[in-house]
């Protein structure tokens, strides 16, 4: 895990408990749900007597986890300055349970039980002075213990104890949460909690651990003082209930409390010491208004005009980061972020992994100065990108070079994708290394290039057959004869869509006759019979036949046949063996790039048979009773 980044458990707890400092917690030293300021004063003095000894028993590692719950998140994840918003009403943990129970479950039952094991003996040995005036909370005479007999109970001992307490007396945990919020700011306890014995210049882990241990001790001490007054049965007012309630109340409070002084500097030092290059990460980000960005803070306002992209058609450097212009207005795009320790090889040179300029539509390089570092991929509306794309750039200031690459911006039916490369480099002029999409030309004020020859067929990438299929078209043939050529019975029909839930859906072909076009179109969902040379020879005796096969491993096969002969067959690449008869059908198609190979293959099929596949054809092939099982005769 990257330095300073919260675990999934910490994030889940923070989301579930943020704002759970209640109106009780904001009430100050006055009356608190029946607890007067005088009683609060006495309670604070009682808690102060035992807080240090309890804090010493909290293990450092889990203490640090709890202590980091209030760590300021980057601005992309919170409000101004990354702080959570104002406290709201006490939130329960779902299914009628308290915020304490929700917090414990977010931390995890093993986590809670580890702290129970560390504190159980100390709690059993506590001899707190009585605090007259605390509410005398009494449970109903009869209540259900809620033990799950005969089933798998994921809750550990501490969570089960709080679950029982919530069922017997739900206001008890609410009172502990409220008292913890007030006592944390009480003059008697505030010095103990703020200092927590942290030496100057301590490491981030120690600061977080002392902070967490002190507040866990506060929660446990308050729970120990409050719960016995409830006159509960031993099975409910037990050490597990006291520790569980105290831990949960501390977590609820810390999720919205500030970190102690010095934590920010220590966290930055830790992050820098653990930061390693190179790194590569992939995730998705929400696009809004044709934009997303790479920023050290929130997405800035005021970058709304396309004039900002007039220089290069793709990226605009602004204070704090860079804005990237997308083709789609709203939605999600895939982004790979690469952070390097040194400049990458020039795009024209061979590289491991086969990265090539030809695989992208637009490639632009710009310079950018980081003021603080740890930039994240962000959305204009504040929606966090995938966790892998957050705080990935070096956690220090400096000059950097950005290489932004894009593809798919012109394709309404194809998912766009981007890469952002970052490496240290002195400022240099912007450089457009590749400019081939029409959007980039429009933004730069340049004449648009002609539409790609296969552009009208790229809709296939957003279709039900986008992952793996074979499309075969036969000109001048009868539908029944085509079905028989595949080894199927024309009389037995069903739809492709009806096969989705079958355990064995292989070996089906759907055939659509289009008399007005004089062709039969055959579709196979994740099938490949149409690429079989023997079947293609048989089909070609009925009329010119062409097929395009592809699968999830990017394997393709284009086959052209006429009069019982295979004219060309093989992987659709620059090495495709097309003889004199087949070569004209490939004219003007770029086979040196692996991009859009399925659409390019379907274009060759269209040229060879005189008919191009259309979305309506595929809809009919998918939903109509046009499918036959190969081998049924």
UniProtKB/TrEMBL annotation:
<feature type="compositionally biased region" description="Gly residues">
    <location>
        <begin position="78"/>
        <end position="95"/>
    </location>
</feature>
<dbReference type="Pfam" id="PF20062">
    <property type="entry name" value="DUF6461"/>
</dbReference>
<feature type="compositionally biased region" description="Basic and acidic residues">
    <location>
        <begin position="1"/>
        <end position="13"/>
    </location>
</feature>
<feature type="region of interest" description="Disordered">
    <location>
        <begin position="73"/>
        <end position="95"/>
    </location>
</feature>
<feature type="region of interest" description="Disordered">
    <location>
        <begin position="1"/>
        <end position="34"/>
    </location>
</feature>
<protein>
    <submittedName>
        <fullName>Uncharacterized protein</fullName>
    </submittedName>
</protein>
<dbReference type="InterPro" id="IPR045592">
    <property type="entry name" value="DUF6461"/>
</dbReference>
């Amino acid at each position: 895990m990257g330095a300073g980044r919260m675990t999934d458990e910490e994030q889940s707890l923070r989301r579930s408990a943020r704002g759970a400092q209640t109106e009780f917690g904001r009430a100050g030293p006055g009356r608190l749900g029946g607890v007067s300021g005088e009683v609060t004063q006495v309670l604070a003095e009682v808690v102060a007597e035992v807080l240090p000894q309890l804090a010493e028993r909290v293990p450092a590692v889990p203490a640090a986890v709890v202590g980091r719950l209030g760590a300021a998140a980057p601005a992309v994840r919170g409000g101004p300055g990354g702080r959570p918003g104002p406290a709201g009403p006490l939130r329960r943990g779902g299914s009628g349970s308290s915020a304490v129970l929700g917090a414990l479950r977010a931390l995890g039952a093993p986590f809670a039980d580890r702290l129970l094991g560390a504190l159980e003996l100390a709690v059993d040995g506590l001899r707190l002075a009585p605090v007259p005036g605390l509410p005398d909370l009494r449970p109903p005479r009869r209540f259900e213990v809620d033990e799950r007999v005969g089933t798998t109970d994921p809750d550990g001992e501490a969570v089960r104890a709080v679950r029982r307490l919530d069922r017997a007396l739900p206001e008890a945990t609410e009172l502990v949460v409220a008292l913890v919020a007030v006592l944390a700011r009480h003059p008697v306890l505030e010095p103990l909690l703020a200092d927590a014995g942290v030496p100057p210049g301590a490491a981030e882990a120690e600061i977080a651990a002392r902070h967490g241990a002190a507040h866990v001790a506060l929660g446990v001490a308050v729970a120990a003082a409050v719960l016995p007054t409830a006159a509960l049965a031993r099975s409910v007012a037990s050490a597990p209930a006291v520790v569980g309630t105290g831990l949960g109340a501390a977590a609820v409070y810390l999720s919205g409390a500030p970190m102690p002084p010095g934590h920010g500097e220590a966290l930055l030092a830790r992050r820098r010491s653990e930061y390693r290059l190179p790194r590569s990460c992939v995730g998705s980000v929400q696009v809004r208004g044709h934009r997303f960005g790479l920023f050290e803070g929130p997405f800035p306002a005021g970058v709304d005009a396309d004039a900002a992209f007039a220089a290069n058609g793709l990226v605009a450097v602004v204070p704090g980061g860079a804005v990237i212009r997308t083709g789609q207005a709203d939605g999600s795009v895939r982004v790979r972020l690469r952070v390097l320790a040194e400049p990458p090889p020039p795009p024209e040179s061979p590289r491991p992994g086969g990265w090539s300029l030809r695989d992208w539509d637009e490639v632009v390089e710009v310079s950018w100065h980081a003021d603080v570092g740890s930039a994240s991929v962000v959305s204009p509306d504040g929606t966090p990108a995938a966790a892998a794309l957050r705080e990935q750039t070096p956690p220090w200031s400096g000059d950097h070079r950005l290489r932004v690459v894009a593809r798919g911006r012109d394709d309404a039916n194809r998912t766009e994708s981007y890469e952002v490369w970052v490496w240290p480099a002195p400022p240099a002029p912007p450089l457009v290394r590749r400019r081939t999409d029409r959007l980039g030309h429009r933004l730069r004020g340049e004449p648009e290039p002609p539409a790609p020859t296969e552009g009208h067929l790229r809709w296939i990438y957003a279709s039900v057959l986008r992952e793996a299929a074979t499309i075969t078209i036969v000109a001048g043939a009868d539908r029944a004869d085509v079905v028989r050529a595949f080894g199927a019975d024309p009389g037995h029909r069903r739809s492709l869509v009806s096969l989705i839930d079958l355990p064995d859906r292989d070996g089906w072909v759907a055939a659509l006759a289009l008399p007005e076009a004089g062709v039969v179109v055959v579709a196979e969902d994740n099938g490949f019979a149409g690429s079989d040379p023997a079947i293609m020879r048989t089909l070609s005796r009925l009329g010119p036949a062409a097929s395009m096969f592809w699968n999830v491993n990017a394997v393709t096969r284009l086959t052209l046949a006429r009069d019982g002969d295979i004219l060309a067959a093989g992987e659709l690449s620059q090495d495709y063996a097309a003889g004199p008869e087949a070569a004209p059908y490939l004219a003007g198609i770029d086979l040196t790039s692996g991009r859009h190979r399925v659409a390019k293959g379907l274009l060759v099929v269209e040229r060879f048979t005189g008919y191009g596949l259309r979305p309506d054809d595929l809809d009919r092939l998918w939903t109509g009773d046009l499918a036959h099982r190969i081998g049924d005769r």
